[in-house]
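Below is our example:

___
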Amino acid sequence: MNIITRFAPSPTGLFHVGSYRTALYAYIFARHNKGKFILRIEDTDKERSKKEFEENIIESLKWLGFDYDEFYRQSDRTEVYKKYIKQLIDSDRAYISKETPKEAGERSEVIRFRNPNKKVTFEDIIRGRIEFDTTELGDFVIAKSIDEPVFHLVNVVDDHEMGMTHIIRGEDHISNTPRQILIYEAIGATPPKFAHIPLVLAPGRSKLSKRHGALAITEYRERGYIPAALVNYMALLGWHPTDDRELLTLPEIIERFSLERVQKSGAIFDEEKLRWFNRQYIAKLSDEEFSSYASSYVPEWIAVSSPDFKRLLPVLREKITVLADIRTLLSPEGELGFVQEIHPHTAEQLLWKKNPVKESARTHLSKMEELIAAVPTDAFTADAVKVAIWNYVEANGKGDVLWPLRVALTGQDKSPDPFTSAYILGREESLKRIGEALKKLV
């Protein structure tokens, strides 16, 4: 069988993680089976469907790395649906129903499906055998008019005409399945196989949705998540491989995926766990990849191609969880804000709290200036600075020596250690700042 799956979102809001997980499972199942993955925009709801939401869906899928083999938009297929509506009416499987409007603006006639009132049974790949008595559904609406089909009809017609073999969607669609099976039978089509995946839940176990806590995929991009980290984390929300590995590339997920290993119960979306995944992926990036991702988050005063940024790079890697943390770290009040400009400080701030003696601070800082100046420019690293001053530090007390050096270099209480700070600033800037601090201790 040539496997064909689809992702069929409605462009009525920004593309969020709950919808994304559905797209992911449909995509990786198709790719695992060397099949076809189709993107279909279900925009028959003309009032709520917006072009910007459609663009957001397409942009998000591209960012996540999902390629699709075919693209359709339901609003372009009205004539196809009209043909099927006429076919159902002509075969007496549907009829024009005269309605009594209960409110102003309601239709006085719609097209209803003639329900055969029977039991419908299907095998769900994840949930097993499911049976419905369709009698309670009544004669349900399949179109507002010959030119205005609604969800159940267009969904079935498209899945049939596009050759869908597997419908992978959220479990909240289970109740739609009996109606759709009845329509399949009425148009003389064989229903595809169904796999209703568990919902993605908020921490309070409510459904994660556009209205309840789900951020748009583009929001995660803006916050500085690596797309591969989001793919990896979301794949494990409801599915797990045969071993305990958590860090998996998309090709590895595709190779290992099976619908049989998808769980039945809902999966809790844990932002902290996603942050952990992102941290692992940031650590795996090459310097070039990291610089490319970081370029959107660094302030204008520093270029990612500059030597200054290259010295910052390992410190940023160590301290950030999402790329947007770079903005915070390099802001004027951030831990690395001293790189652009030293924070103003007084002579009193240069004094170690356990030995607040100006002469002592001046002596130690003068010695730091001498030892750091002896480190050659072409060998000026954090380790080289530490080696140059460490014997003196140990002999005279870490706090007494390193505190005034830290403040002289950064003007901050919280900053990287003085060796790293000196390396980030470079030899000349470090010596300049130490010299300025010594003037305050006269």
Remarks:
- The longest helix spans residues 17-32.
- The mean pLDDT is 94.
- The first strand starts at residue 4 and ends at 7.
